[in-house]
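Action item from last meeting closed. Structure (84 res):
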């Protein structure tokens, strides 16, 4: 599981990670600043989430101020593309 605390830089704050994979620079959830790369990593992890709530617990997407109003459709689409 990735460290989701505020003590360490997140993927969107690391230019070397974005240079290696631009998906880490594309934010899907703007409230919690979750990138497409982080979502992809969670969806293809050793134990992938069984639903959108599991994805929320792994990445904090849909857990911000808007409660998924702005990013919910994009997250559902990414989840379904991954085979969820």
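Sequence:
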């Amino acid at each position: 599981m990735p460290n989701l605390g505020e003590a360490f830089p997140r993927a969107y704050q690391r230019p070397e990670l974005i240079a290696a994979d631009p998906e880490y620079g594309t934010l899907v959830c703007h409230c919690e600043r979750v990138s497409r790369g982080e979502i992809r990593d969670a969806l293809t992890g050793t134990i992938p989430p069984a639903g959108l709530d599991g994805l929320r617990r792994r990445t904090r997407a849909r857990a911000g101020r808007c409660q998924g109003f702005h990013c919910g459709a994009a997250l559902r689409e990414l989840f379904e593309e991954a085979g969820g």
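Note appended to the action item: The mean pLDDT is 91.
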